[in-house]
Design brief:
By secondary structure, this protein is α+β, with helices and mostly antiparallel strands. It has helices spanning 2-5, 10-16, 42-47, 117-130, 175-180, 182-195, 220-239, 285-297, 302-305, 359-376, 399-407, 410-416, 418-436, 441-447; strands at residues 23-29, 35-41, 51-54, 78-83, 89-90, 98-106, 133-147, 199-204, 210-215, 243-246, 260-268, 327-329, 336-338, 348-350. The protein has two domains: 2-109, Glutamine synthetase, N-terminal domain (Ubiquitin-like (UB roll), Roll), CATH 3.10.20.70; 124-445, Glutamine synthetase/guanido kinase, catalytic domain (Creatine Kinase, Chain A, domain 2), CATH 3.30.590.10. The strands form two sheets. Strands 7, 8, 9, 10, 11, 12, 13 and 14 form an eight-stranded mixed sheet that branches. A hairpin with a 5-residue loop joins strand 8 (199-204) and strand 9. The longest helix is centred in the middle third of the chain and has 20 residues, at 220-239. The relative contact order is 0.13.
């Protein structure tokens, strides 16, 4: 066991120092971003080089149903999963000493499985690398702490704070509001430290019990791994304090939704310099081309950035979420924002994605738009001045429309991979079909006796 322990990141080795490792969780992210895999005794993990999972895990919907693909074998052939030891991370909320390890996924011939979300992101990053570029991302995570909700028929409520009152809305950036659920925040920090993750900052957002957490910029795959881990970490911290953490895009009526804003820049692999800035600090054509790609191609991947019917409830004017793909400088009403920065930090912020997205797929889709823009070398629409909420809506307003645009985007399919796009469309179409079979309380209240 000592040999593979020596391969672990420093944080994992420090976590185990002087302790006996009990269990290893071998995990991957499915289409929804849910952790799938196996847990096994550490002694067994040390004796094996890989394990198997059926490829059908990528056909499972969020409700547990299974999509079917024309030509897909019914035998559910096994995929070969091997540990990526660079991702080994503590699971500090467990009762024993446990590590989590994200695994690479290949078919039995040794080829990366093209529908695995982590492989989709690696594919897109590889396209940048082939051009001599290195994409950089900095994600912002928004989520709600809410009271326990064990009956889905009941509306979600804000959590009870230490004052004995429920968390209040419209308290953005309030330190007192964050202190109301300080014990949860303390556990988030403690868990993150044990896992070796660096949090750039935590603040109170505009919703009741809504928190924003920023991560440092870096490699897209590494950051997606961290968000994948963070979602579980945050949920576990909340459960310790009799509340839930939810990453639903719009969990509470009349409150803002939760986004996963993504800051994008691109560096030159040879020089390490930001290709969005010239030597004298001016903006380059490449910066405009990247923005153009986001504007031109993002409608085709809204189904990835907003993956559920609930996601589209977030796109409401004046509720801190964009309704179009205008771009502006330091303008938070636009879908694409150029933040204040120096030349080296010049970047574009994509404000469209909801926090309910799969981080691997959302980052891959957003980067894919920018990549196509860099290859097409077209200019974006003129910079938007003023309140973009007063402008026309230019993104799909529902899942059905978004999936139609996703299906009719051959350029995007070539970047993300046609096999993945076919699977994603099948899974999301089945989820939407399942949703349409559910009769809501609104329908029963207003239609049962009135129509």
């Amino acid at each position: 066991m000592a040999d593979w322990i020596d391969e672990l990141p420093e944080a994992a080795r420090l976590y185990l120092q002087g302790r006996r490792l009990d269990e290893v969780e071998c995990i991957v992210a499915d289409i929804a971003g849910v952790a799938r895999g196996k847990a096994m005794p550490a002694s067994k993990f040390a004796r094996q080089s890989h394990f198997y999972l059926p490829n059908s895990i990528f056909l499972q919907t969020i409700t547990g149903d299974w999509a079917s693909i024309e030509g897909q074998p019914f035998t559910e052939p096994d995929m070969v999963l091997t540990p990526d030891f660079s991702t080994a991370s503590a699971a500090p909320w467990t009762a024993d000493w446990t590590l989590q390890v994200i695994h690479d996924i290949k078919d039995q011939s040794g080829n990366p499985v093209p529908v695995a979300p982590r492989n989709v992101l690696k594919r897109v990053v590889g396209l940048f690398n082939e051009q001599g570029w290195d994409p950089i991302v900095a994600p912002e995570m928004e989520f709600f702490l809410v009271a326990r909700n064990i009956d889905p028929a009941h509306p979600i409520q804000p959590p009870m704070g230490r004052s004995g009152r429920r968390a209040a809305a419209r308290q953005a950036y309030s330190m007192s509001a964050v202190d109301e659920y300080g014990p949860v925040i303390d556990d988030i920090y403690d868990f993150a430290e044990a896992q070796g993750f660096e949090i750039d900052g935590i603040l109170q957002e505009g919703g009741a019990g809504q928190i924003e957490m920023n991560l440092r910029h870096g490699d897209p795959v590494k950051l997606a791994d961290e968000i994948f881990y963070f979602k579980r970490l945050i949920r576990e911290a909340a459960l310790r304090h009799d509340c839930y953490a939810t990453f639903m895009a719009k969990p509470i009526e009349d409150e803002p939704g939760s986004a996963m804003h993504m800051h994008h820049s691109v560096t030159d692999l040879a020089t390490g310099e930001n290709i969005f800035s010239t030597r004298d600090g001016a903006e380059t054509p490449a910066f405009m081309h990247f923005i153009s790609g986001l504007q031109r191609h993002m409608p085709s991947v809204i189904a990835v950035l907003a993956p559920y019917v609930n996601s589209y409830r977030r796109y409401v004017p004046d509720f801190a979420a964009p309704i179009n793909l205008e771009w502006g400088r330091d303008n938070r009403t636009t879908g694409l924002r150029v933040p204040i920065s120096d030349a080296g930090g010049r970047r574009i912020e994509n404000r469209i994605a909801g926090m309910d997205c799969n981080p691997y797929l959302a980052i891959a889709a957003s980067l894919a738009c920018g990549y196509l823009g860099l290859m097409e070398q077209k200019m974006p629409a003129p910079q938007f001045q003023g309140d973009a909420y007063a402008s026309d809506e230019s993104i799909p307003r529902g899942m059905n429309e978004a999936l139609d645009l996703f299906d009719d985007a051959p350029e995007m399919h070539e970047v993300l991979g046609p096999e993945f796009c076919a699977v994603y469309s099948a899974v999301k179409s089945l989820e939407y079909k399942e949703f349409l079979q559910v009769i809501s309380p609104w329908e029963r209240e207003h239609l049962l006796l009135n129509v």
